[in-house]
Amino acid sequence: MSYKTTSALALSGALAVCPALAADDAAIPDVVQALLDSVHETGDVEDIGAVTRAVVEVFPDYADAINAQSERRIAGLAPLKEIDADAAPAEPSDKAGLLAVSPWDGKIQAGASFASGNSDNLAVGLALDAARTAGAFTHNVKAFIDIAESNDVTNQKRWGGEYQLDYAFSDRTYAYTRFSYEEDEFSGFDYRLFGGVGLGHFLYKSESLTWKIEGGPGYRYSPIDLTREIEEQFAFYAASETDWVIREGVAFSQDFYVTWTSPTTTFQSVSALTTSLTEAISTALTLEYRYETDPPDGRVNSDTVARASVVYGF
Questions:
Q1: pLDDT tens, position by position, 280-307
Q2: Are residues 40 and 151 in the same domain?
Q3: DSSP state of 120
């Protein structure tokens, strides 16, 4: 089985873990349903209400179905809480519920986006960004999927994921191994696979502001859609990631990524402003800009995506 097929099956399986929808919830988009299912698992009425209100703001066309589902599930929590109050305390378990992901820290993000460039459309998306530290090692996992349809025709389909393992030499310096995979039907590439190693260093590190850079050599494999030509090139990857807590409840991040190969170089900038609604729930405005120095024939150099999202932190 090919790497591409295996990755697609893995992502499909991950999205399929969400509970089946009731008949009157069938119209709710899958990415919205996944977020609602996640917060309902917590049993926290305040978080459920906050997520419901935020999701309705982003997806107003589905407001009636979303509100009805949340009201129905909140009503079902009361008898469960009464039973739990009289019962003996349950032993803690990392397997208790969909959101029992400790000791992983991260966020799940769902929202709507507008894209211009190789594709112009409205889209919905789902993203995961999580990390786990075990001694000197840190596991970093990211995954995303963006899909859009117009007149029952898919006009955007972009998904991918990456895994990076860091090994800390000190509080500020680390080595990493990185793998990533991405598909974008409108990029001109069938898919892109990257693997590399390198070093990273925190230039600044405090409670309110962190800034780190990393980079190193790698290998990129990129089949081209139209010509079926295979680009297999030595590559160099570099990144700069800045996180700034402006004030309590408001944070800004700015990330730059560059992947150089002799045929083409890919630049990516991701800017995000996040505002907290509760301890676990936030809203985010994100602007992503991608630039390809030498894209395949018939493709433009740049793509821009503006996204409004609801974020669940864990």
A1: 999 999 999 999 998 877 677 888 888 8
A2: no
A3: -
